[in-house]
Inverse folding.
């Protein structure tokens, strides 16, 4: 299986952690949250009627807003509070599935920090597709995915069709770069024991979670002789 590389933080941030949190005793949430570009590769946990934002070294007058991704119009605005460290929680129960920005502003509304999160409806399955299910010659496998968890070490792996994802049976692989949705090719020069083009036969590409063999979503393809 792929080996982890050390994560690199995107610089010092006054907002140090983003996570999902379910209030004690609450019902299962209709939404979960995942980080598109989280600090140091962190992601939002799969729970919550609330989007919880950890923070540190706040300044007087700092506040945190939640907006639609790319927008400057606040959907919610919370003061950071009297303590320089702590957390804030946004209610997500009325928000639709999609991308949102969490933005830290100072007392003059100057942006200090921003990150993007994606709210995904509870029960939404990871979708994995291939652009062409039949490969010929050295044609690359073009893979697309959506609604992935966005873990730092999620990876795409090619297996023979029907093979269990245990004991390093993968043939080729690459990381998703912690992206919740996107597309990437696997082809000549890919990591893994198989040469490219692969031998004729039927295969599957799977999205496996965080350097493990727990896979979520698959798409079939075949290689012609």
């Amino acid at each position: 299986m792929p080996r982890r590389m050390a994560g690199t933080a995107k610089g010092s941030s006054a907002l140090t952690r983003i996570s999902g949190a379910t209030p004690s005793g609450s019902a299962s949430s209709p939404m979960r949250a995942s980080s598109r570009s989280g600090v140091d590769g962190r992601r939002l946990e799969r729970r919550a009627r609330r989007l919880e934002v950890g923070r540190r070294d706040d300044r007087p007058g700092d506040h945190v807003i939640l907006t639609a991704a790319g927008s400057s119009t606040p959907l919610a605005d919370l003061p950071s509070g009297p303590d320089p460290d702590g957390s804030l929680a946004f209610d997500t129960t009325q928000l639709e599935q999609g991308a949102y920005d969490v933005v830290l502003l100072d007392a003059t509304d100057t942006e200090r920090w921003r990150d993007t999160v994606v709210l995904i409806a509870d029960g939404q399955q990871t979708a994995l597709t291939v652009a062409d299910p039949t490969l010929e010659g050295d044609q690359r496998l073009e893979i697309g995915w959506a609604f992935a968890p966005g873990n730092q070490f999620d990876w795409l792996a090619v297996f023979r069709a029907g093979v269990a994802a245990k004991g390093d049976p993968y043939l080729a692989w690459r990381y998703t770069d912690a992206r919740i949705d996107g597309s990437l090719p696997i082809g000549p020069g890919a990591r893994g024991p198989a040469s490219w083009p692969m031998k004729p036969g039927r295969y599957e590409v799977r999205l496996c979670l965080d350097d493990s063999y727990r896979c979520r979503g698959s798409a079939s393809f075949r290689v012609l002789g």
In short: The CA atoms of residues 153 and 210 lie 4 Å apart. The longest strand covers residues 111-121. The chain has two domains: 17-121, 127-223.
